[in-house]
Amino acid sequence: MSGTTTRSAGSGSAGTANSPWRNWAGNVTSRPVREVSPASAEELAEAVRRAAADGLRVKTVGTGHSFTSIAATDGVLIRPGLLTGIRRIDRGAMTVTVESGTPLKRLNVALAREGLSLTNMGDIMEQTVAGATSTGTHGTGRDSASIAAQIRELELVTASGELLTCSAKENPEVFAAARIGLGALGVVTAITFAVEPVFLLTAREEPMTFDRVTSEFDALHAENEHFEFYWFPHTDNCNTKRNNRSAGPAAPPGRVSGWVEDELLSNGLFQVACSLGRAVPPVIPSIARVSSRALSARTYTDIPYKVFTSPRRVRFLEMEYALPRETAVGALRELKAMVERSPLKVSFPVEVRTAPADDIALSTASGRDTVYIAVHLYRGTPHHAYFTAVERIMTAHAGRPHWGKVHTRDAAYFSGVYPRFAEFTALRDRLDPDRLFANDYLRRVLGD
Description:
Elements: E1 13-16, E2 21-22, E3 29-30, E4 34-37, H1 41-54, E5 58-60, E6 76-78, E7 86-90, E8 95-99, H2 104-113, E9 116-117, H3 129-134, E10 151-157, E11 163-167, H4 172-178, E12 187-194, E13 196-197, E14 200-209, H5 210-215, H6 217-223, E15 226-231, E16 237-246, H7 255-279, H8 284-294, E17 298-302, H9 304-308, E18 316-324, H10 328-341, E19 350-355, E20 370-378, H11 384-396, E21 400-401, H12 411-417, H13 421-431, H14 440-446
Helix pairs in contact: 7-8, 10-11
C-alpha cells in the first residue's frame, strides 16, 4: 500500500451567512442562517449535532452544478472546501480514498500522477466527488457505469452525529442506497473509489445525419466502449463521439487545433451565438445550421480524463431523462418531431449517452440498461415551454429525471419508476427520522 495525503490543514470555521448562496446556473438561491467549513469528519459531525440542537436543517453544497434546489437550505450550509485531498491509495485493492470536498479535477490529476484512473467519468470535472456521486453524475458507457457505481466504500455522518463506514460488507443496506443518497441520508465525508492503471482512449469524433445515427444506434452502442452524440435542433445534423481503449501511442489534439475546437468553437463562438439567439430568437435555426457544420471530424488519443471531459464555459439550464434503452430512439424521434412542428427556437444541441444497469437504489440506471437524453437552453432563455414538452415525452416512456437537473416530478411518480423507492425512503426514516437533512426539494421528490 502506498499513501498520499493532500488534505488542507487547519481547523474548520463557522459564521453567519452574509450573502445568499447561488448555484452555478444562477437559477437557485438560498439564504442559510450560518455557514460552516469543517476541516475534518469529526468537526463536521459536531456541526451536525449543533445544528440539530439549534433546530436548524443542514445541507452540504459542493460547486453548485446542480440545476435543482437539492442543496438549498435556510438552516446550516456546510461548505466542504477544507475536506479535500487523497487520504490513501491502496494498490493491492486498487482503490483510492478521497475527502468528500475534493473536486473531480484535482482527483483526476492526482490519480494520473500516480499512474491511475477512474474507469469512467462525466463530461465535466468541476464538481466535488460527493456532489457528483450523490446526484448520480455519469458519462457514457456500454459496460462501465456512473461515478457512483465505482464507489467501494463511503463515510457518512448521520443525523445523530454518528460517523458510519459503509461498504458491501459493513452497513451494506446503507451502502446500497447512500452511493446516490441525494443528501437525504447524511453528509458524506469520504469516498473510496475503485481505480485501475491509467490507460489510453482514442476518441473518434465524426458528423453524422440524425437518420443514420438513430437507425444505427444499437450497432454504434454495441461496437464502442463509450458512444455519445449530439443532435442540433432545427437541423438533421449530429456530431458523434466514439471512445475506445487504445494501445497507443498517445496522440493528443494539437495545441492550436485543440484550442480552436474546445475553446473557440465550443465555448467562445458558441457563447456569442447563444447570446445572439437569446436576443433575436428567429435567427436560431440559421445559427444551428452553421454551428452543426463547424465542428469537423477528428481523432486523438490521450489519458481518460483528457478525453472524457471538456471545458464548459457557456452557462445554461439543463433537463435530462434516463430512459429504458429500448425506448430511447423512439423518444428521440418524438422529440425531434415536436421541435419541428412547434414555434420553439432551441439553440443548444441535445445530448445522448448510455449506461449499463446498476444496483444502486435511486440510480437513474438502477436495474435497467439506460439511454440519457439531455436538453439545454442558454441561461436567461425562457425554458418552461421547451422543458415541459420534453418532459411530457420522457415521462410517457417511464423516464427517470437526473436528480440534479430541472424536472417537475414528485414522490408519487418516483415510486412508480423506481422499484426500490420504498427501500430508500424506509432507510431515510431510520437514519433521519426528524428530517434534519430535508429541504423543499427532498420533500417533493421523496415525500415527508
